[in-house]
Design brief:
With about 500 residues, the chain is α/β, with parallel strands linked by helices. The chain folds into two domains: about 170 residues, Ribosomal Protein S5, domain 2 (2-Layer Sandwich), CATH 3.30.230.10; about 240 residues, P-loop containing nucleotide triphosphate hydrolases (Rossmann fold, 3-Layer(aba) Sandwich). A hairpin with a 2-residue loop joins strand 1 and strand 2. Helix 2 packs across helix 3 and helix 17 packs across helix 20. The chain is elongated, with a radius of gyration of 27 Å.
Length: about 500
């Protein structure tokens, strides 16, 4: 036999595709040719595979070996094909009967000594195999717990190429996935740690309940970072679909914590202000990898000292904030990653940032305008909640009796508000108020009466707010009503939404 075929999975972005690894061995000068749009790592697989086969006690066939990865028109990236390639070569040479591996998907990177090493992106790969109707998969032992997350898949693990060969030849057992690890400790930052800042806490609660973006402006020490870091603590846990999406993204980035559990807590990303555009939105040579905005999918992206970020990096966030996904075009092909995140911006009011506030500011009016002007109007227009925080007073800081409500209490109200919104918007296929298209808000039965929106209409007509701002304020009003247990927003809800949107009176 000179031909063999083994199944593997390739990734394009966060989507996996079943790949057939073909091996044809023909007489001629010894050589290895790989076709099917392989990247550099795949081209180097021929040397890794040859050394792994020899060091596993198997014979390398001294023939012309042609390896083809189908579909040939889809680019292939990474080293996850190594184990499948080695198996196909041994099968094509007649050294290994492949009947026990019929319909089995094989993933893994090979070391020169024959060890099978873990690879990135196993979770979306296994999910792709399940969608293609394959229910048996062999993965590196380091990825076994992650692969076992997908229901309906029989996962077996290997630590060496020799173990896989022994299984095929003699029926020796493969390794089982490890038992479920204990659940992670849910402890984290709590809102009770924040002194004072009633407006900031209210803004955080509204943002969490409706999925709204948030901007916090205030002097150093006012609590901007503390509030932002506690936003995940009041968000509901991710449901199954969202948890799979988030876990898959972290798997591709190689950032999954040990244990292989689904990520149920909303992720929190806080890149440094020196972060580049690719690190924020995704990039890299060949296949673009997810950036911070995608790693914060279904969670929080926090930009502390936002005016210190480069203008290009900030402006690159506009498209994913609007559409909930990021499209990256590269010479090697386009990639799309989900990016439905809550953006939280924190900024000092001026470069000198005196803790005492504006009364002691040493900056000229021009310097203040230039500093905050780094946050462009189109970007800020996409931020639903924009509040100004005042310096914390000594009484608020020192008196334990005035400690704020804990995250648990706020999270309970947020959960109830989200359930109310999800039930209301179920007919249009949405769950959060922040996701509702503007036309739905302006049509019966959801259009608010003129008497309740008179102030808002006047601001739109005068040019004080944009049409996008009009819709975002209406969404905020719905969220406020949900938090307070009302079926529909009233005039007071709209006025509070205007205050939270514009920062007036804060």
């Amino acid at each position: 036999m000179s031909y063999a075929k083994v199944l593997c999975v390739g990734l394009v972005g966060v989507t996996g595709h079943l790949v057939e690894v073909e091996a044809d061995l023909a007489p001629g000068l010894p050589a290895v040719v790989i076709s099917g749009l392989p990247d550099t790592a795949l081209h180097e697989a021929r040397d890794r595979v040859r050394a792994a086969i020899v060091n596993s006690g198997q014979r390398w066939p001294n023939r012309r070996i042609t390896l083809n990865l189908l579909p040939a028109t889809m680019p292939k990236y990474g080293s996850a094909f190594d184990l499948a390639i080695a198996t196909a070569v041994l099968g094509g040479s007649g050294e290994l009967p492949l009947a026990p591996l019929d319909g089995v998907v094989i993933l893994g990177e090979l070391g020169l000594d024959g060890a099978v090493r873990p690879v990135r992106g196993v979770l979306p790969m296994v999910a792709a195999a399940a969608r293609a109707g394959r229910d048996r998969i062999v993965v590196p032992v380091g990825n076994a717990a992650e692969a076992a997350v997908i229901p309906g898949i029989r996962v077996r693990a290997v630590d060496t190429l020799h173990r896989l060969v022994a299984y095929v030849r003699d029926g020796s057992p493969l390794l089982d996935p490890p038992a479920d690890p204990p659940a992670p400790d849910p402890d984290g930052p709590d809102l009770a740690d924040v002194a004072g800042q009633g407006l900031g806490r209210r803004a955080l609660e509204v943002a969490a309940a409706g999925g709204h973006h948030l901007a916090l402006l205030g002097p150093p020490g006012a609590g901007k970072t503390m509030l932002a870091e506690r936003l995940p603590s009041i968000l509901p846990e991710l449901d199954d679909d969202a948890a799979l999406e988030v876990t898959a993204l972290h798997s591709i980035a190689g950032l999954l914590p040990p244990g292989g559990r689904l990520l149920r807590r909303p992720p929190f990303q806080a890149p440094h202000h020196t972060a580049t555009v690719p690190s924020l939105v995704g990039g890299g040579s060949g296949l673009a990898r997810p950036g911070a905005v995608s790693l914060a999918h279904r969670g929080v992206l926090f930009l502390d000292e936002a005016p210190e970020f480069s203008k290009g990096a900030l402006e690159a966030l506009r498209q994913p904030l609007e559409h909930g996904r990021i499209q990256l075009a590269r010479s090697g092909g386009g990639t799309e990653y989900p990016a439905r995140t809550q953006l939280v911006l924190a900024a000092n009011p001026c470069p000198c940032a005196k803790p005492a506030g504006d009364a002691y500011c040493e900056c000229s009016p021009l310097a203040r305008r230039r500093y905050l002007g780094r946050l462009s109007g189109p970007l800020l227009d996409r931020i639903d909640v924009q509040v100004k925080l005042l310096p914390v007073r000594a009484a608020e800081l020192m008196e334990a009796a005035r400690a704020g409500e804990s995250s648990a209490g706020v999270a309970a109200r947020v959960s109830l508000a989200r359930r109310a919104a999800a039930a209301r918007w179920a007919p249009v296929g949405r769950k959060l108020n922040a996701e509702i298209p503007g036309p739905h808000l302006r049509r019966p039965p959801w259009r608010l009466p003129v008497r309740d929106t008179a102030e808002l209409r006047g601001r739109l007509d005068s040019g004080a707010i944009s049409a996008r701002g009009f819709d975002r304020i209406i969404r905020l009003a719905w969220t406020i009503a949900d938090l307070d247990g009302r079926d529909r927003p009233g005039r007071e809800d709209v006025l509070e939404a205007i205050q939270l949107r514009t920062g007036e009176g804060t």
